[in-house]
Each structure stands twice: as C-alpha cells, then as structure tokens.
Amino acid sequence: MKNGQAMKVDLLLDTHAWIWLVTGESRILKSEFGKVLLKQENVGFFLSSISLWEIAMLISKERLKLTMDTRLWLERFLKITHTSIIEIDPNIAVKSTGLDGFHGDPADRIIVATAILKKVKLVTADQSILKFCKSNKIEYIKI
C-alpha cells in the first residue's frame, strides 16, 4: 500500500484470458489470476490490438459464436471490463521479432513484446508463453 491506498496492478490479458474473463469461464476463479482479482481492488486490464484481430478471426471461423455484431460485441465488452487497448507501435513490432527461443506465432510474439515493453504482467494459460516468460524473467500470472 502506498499512502493508505492499494497499489494499482496493470495486467495484459492474452487473447483467451480476456475472452474467458468476458464469458465468465469458471477456471479463472480457481487460478492465480482469480486470486489477484479477488484480493486486488485496483486492477487495470489491457489488451494488445492484435488480440482484437484474433477474436474477430475466431468469430469469423465460428470458433467463437456471438448473438450480435462482432464490432459491437468487442466495443461493449471492452467498455464493461474497462479494458484499454495497447496499439502495436514500432518498438513492439521490432521487439516481437527478437524474442530468441520463442515460437513463431506473430500474435503471441506481439503480446509478449507488449508485456515486456509496457512493463505489465501478462495473464495467460498458454504453456509456451508461460515457459518463455519464466525462463526470461518476464512477469506473468497463470490461469
């Protein structure tokens, strides 16, 4: 605590983590992430702009089904969850290409690079991301 106020915790949610938060996925409450949500009053949610594309692709491939327009759904739940978007800037783009030992998925690379450069904890259940974060001392919270 700082001056009697809880310190703010900024979290970058991996794409699936944000979807699970929005849809109320039960495994969240049982995870480290759930414990942070329950005990922390001042949490800031962030999402990489690449996650918006990933979500739109899941919807277009019918792997995620909605009852409303994709754009409206995204806008509604970004607002409801108070999630801010972190745009892909030149620094993130370049950093994402230099993650030695990490797999080639461009979206995952951008998300990890965003967490590193913006100095936020990455929330994910992705085992390859967790392994990379652990071995490279990148802050994370596991779902």
Q: Any overview of this molecule?
A:
With 143 residues, this protein is an alpha/beta fold. The chain has one domain: Rossmann fold, CATH 3.40.50.1010. Helix content is 48%, strand content 15%. The protein has seven helices and five strands, in the order βααβααβααβαβ. The chain has a five-stranded parallel sheet with strand order 3-2-1-4-5, sandwiched between helices. Helix 5 (90-96) packs across helix 6 (106-118). The mean pLDDT is 93.
Which geometry do the CA atoms define?
A: globular
Outline the low-pLDDT stretches. Answer: none
User: How much of the polypeptide forms β-strand, as a percent range?
Assistant: 15-25%
State the separation between the terminal residues, measured CA to CA.
25 Å
CATH superfamily: 5'-nuclease
Q: Could you tell me the radius of gyration in angstroms?
A: 15 Å
Largest pleated sheet: 5 strands, parallel
Structural class: alpha/beta
Proportion in helices: 40-55%
